[in-house]
Design a protein that fits this description.
Layout (H helix, E strand, L loop, with lengths): L1 H19 L14 H21 L5 H9 L12 H5 L20 H35 L5 E5 L10 H12 L8 H10 L5 E15 L6 E15 L1 H9 L4 H18 L21 E3 L6 E3 L11 E2 L2 E2 H4 L1 H13 L6 H10 L3 E2 L3 E2 L3 H8 L4 E4 L4 H9 L3 E7 L7 E10 L2 E5 L4 H4 L2 E2 L1 H7 L10 E4 L1
Parallel strand pairs: 1-3
Antiparallel strand pairs: 2-3, 4-5, 6-7, 8-9, 10-15, 11-12, 11-15, 12-13, 13-14
Helix pairs in contact: 1-2, 2-3, 2-9, 5-7, 6-9, 11-12, 11-13
């Protein structure tokens, strides 16, 4: 009887998993991992749920029935995440839901939990900045410099990928389901708060015009300045120094993050999973002239750019953000900035996210750096997008799973023709030559974009 139930459950889960088109993460050979972890990495969220529930079937028999009944409705599970995402294997039903509806099937509750985690991380990030500023003040006080300047790229908002934090925590906990909780995650993250940021420093002489207090006249004064530049140590710091993930756990964390990003449709994970290190032949000097504004086109897979570094990744695999901004800047600013130069700028200024592409804040930051006006735009403002394109402006969009990507991807909207949208897709010259319905773009745009997105009107 048990074998029959297991077979039926597996078949049903497989059907739901296939229908969902979830990503398949890879587990490298090594130590044995839990059935839940194998399910998550091999079969997306549904596989993870199957693994967790079946492994713990004697404890959570009620959940088995719920899973079977609810497979066709979006279920986030990146397992090892029970308490973080839906309250734990022993608390799978919401106390506030009517008709005993599992929180597994309560998108609002899941998003609220992720929002709570985001708020906690914001607080930890702010504390980390404060700790590092105190270190800078101590260093300056011990120096012989006259003045100091702090270059802080994170002054407006912190940059981080919440999905990666959640995923690393889950991979770290692995089979220890019982202790998983938001408060436990927060406690672990806080242990690394003081080392979230570091800084570099340089010294330089500056000639300043000041008023002599004795004479009231302006005089030229040479001062020694110490310039500090804040650096976010990134999710890699937590992976290696706080959670201390081994190679196998790191692979699981990547699979978890991909799955969570797919569920939330936030476009945070921008890697081209199909990129195998190859490139396309150089496209040469491509310009689109069928819109109001002539657009300089770059492709991240072009042999001139694909193999070049983007942090420790490559432009070919993770460079849609800088390539999109290279298109924007080269088309609107009067300056030519190719994907290699833009990727280097993004990396130096903290907008590269290891294994994930770019933080969404890259778009407005790069636009402002090159003197371009930029404003965020939501999916509920289609007329703003149409008006901007008709006026010769360009629009960057962060897309989630659909026609343009399997996970997350930046593209450029570059004009209107016959009532449809012209695009410049940095990963596809072919898609850049097609016309697209605005309704499709709005539907597939990121639901959880940061930094004012999922659309940024520039020009």
């Amino acid at each position: 009887m048990e074998n029959e139930q297991k077979s039926g459950l597996s078949e049903t889960l497989e059907t739901g998993r296939t229908a969902a088109h979830m990503v398949h993460g890879a587990i490298k050979t090594g130590k044995t991992v839990s059935g839940a972890a194998k399910g998550a990495a091999a079969g997306g969220p549904y596989g993870a749920v199957a693994g967790a529930v079946w492994e713990n079937r004697r404890l959570v028999g009620k959940i088995i029935i719920a899973i079977i009944a609810l497979l066709l409705i979006p279920v986030v599970f990146v397992v090892s995440l029970p308490a973080v995402i839906f309250g734990g294997l022993l608390n799978a039903f919401s106390s506030t839901a009517t008709f005993d509806i599992p929180i597994l099937n309560n998108n609002t509750a899941i998003v609220e939990n992720v929002t709570e985690i985001t708020s906690i991380i914001d607080e930890i990030m702010a504390g980390g900045l404060e700790d590092t500023m105190k270190q800078i003040e101590t260093d300056f006080a011990a120096s012989d410099a006259d003045e100091m300047e702090v270059v802080n790229p994170y002054a407006d908002h912190p940059l981080y990928n919440v999905n990666q934090f959640i995923a690393m925590y889950c991979a770290y906990k692995n089979e220890d389901y019982a202790s998983i909780s938001i408060s436990d995650m927060a406690g672990i993250l806080r242990t690394g708060q003081s080392r979230l940021y570091s800084y570099t420093q340089t010294e330089e002489s500056r000639t300043m015009i000041k008023t002599d207090p004795a004479t009231g006249k302006e005089v030229s004064v040479t001062e020694k300045w110490r310039v500090y530049t804040l650096v976010y140590n990134g999710e890699t710091y937590f992976s290696e120094q706080v959670f201390m993930l081994n190679e196998e756990q790191a692979a699981l964390a990547d699979a978890y993050a991909q799955n969570l990003s797919l569920f939330l449709e936030d476009g945070m994970m921008q890697g081209l999973t199909e990129w195998d290190g190859n490139s396309i032949l150089s496209l040469g000097d491509v310009r689109f002239t069928d819109g109001v504004t002539e657009v300089v086109y770059y492709n991240q897979l072009d042999e001139r750019y694909a193999g070049k570094p983007y942090g420790t990744d490559h432009i070919g695999s993770h460079g849609c953000g800088p390539t999109s901004m290279a298109i924007i800047v080269s088309s609107l600013s009067g300056q030519t900035v190719d994907p290699v130069a833009m990727a280097e700028w993004s990396y130096r200024n903290g907008y590269w996210c290891k294994d994930s592409g770019s933080y969404h804040a890259l778009i407005p930051a790069a636009a402002r750096n090159w003197g371009l006006n930029v404003s965020g735009c939501s999916v509920s403002e289609p007329q703003r997008i149409l008006d901007a394109l008709a006026d010769g402006k360009l629009v960057v969009a962060i897309m989630s799973r659909g026609h343009f990507t399997k996970s997350g991807h930046f593209i450029v909207l570059r004009g209107i023709q016959n009532g449809k949208i012209l695009v410049a897709d940095p990963a596809s010259y072919s898609r850049s030559g097609q016309l697209w319905d605005l309704s499709l773009i709005l539907r597939e745009a990121s639901r959880g974009a940061a930094a004012g997105g999922p659309f940024w009107i520039i020009g």
